[in-house]
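We give the chain.
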Amino acid sequence: MQDDQTPLTPEIKKRTIRSFVVRGGRMTEGQQKAYDANWAVYGLDVNQGRIAYEDVFGRQSDVVIEVGFGMGASLIEMAKNAPENDYIGIEVHPPGVAKLMMLAKEAGLTNIRVYCHDAIEIMADCLPQGQATTFQLFFPDPWHKKKHNKRRIVQPLFAQQVRNILKSGGQFHMATDWEPYAEHMLEVMEAQDNYENAAGKGHYHPRPDWRPLTKFEQRGEKLGHGVWDLLYTKL
């Protein structure tokens, strides 16, 4: 019997151009110990296939997906501040995954899990379709050079894959500190006919209270750097 978690089309699932580079992927001895000690509690394996959120967290809740959480401090803060929500982070950088799990354990969190794998494959093969409340993409690699723009993760196919993950009324929240990338995000998202800009067509969104102000962002503000948030609702 086929359920409603229909696999994505091969065109969306297929990944030929990487939008990331794994930098410093080698873990220190301490990071490896943290990874090994906490994976059984917080880790999700791509080989598990498509999961059910209720099985993973043992309850029904609003589920937030974040891709590229770095070292995890911001995502941990959100999980602490909203214990009623459940969070799944996806990151290809093993030291960041190790750090997030260590912080989660120190905080005694039960509402967070993590994949250490390519997000495109996780979204296609592992996440339930049409069920997540929020999808977060904060400060992705902007790929500054024009010849590398095709590597930017925010592209029309990616926007549609995010839409497949979200439930009706769910939100796709992006943020970047690189204005040309903000303009690119806006251009891509405004062209989608199944999203609505929460700030109004063609506008950026003020930083919502639930997105923590990172140290990186605070440092940028002191240097006069801008940050652009974009928030789109699935129709």
Observations:
- Confidence is low (pLDDT under 50) at residues 1-15.
- Residues 49-128 form a domain with the Rossmann fold fold (CATH 3.40.50.150).
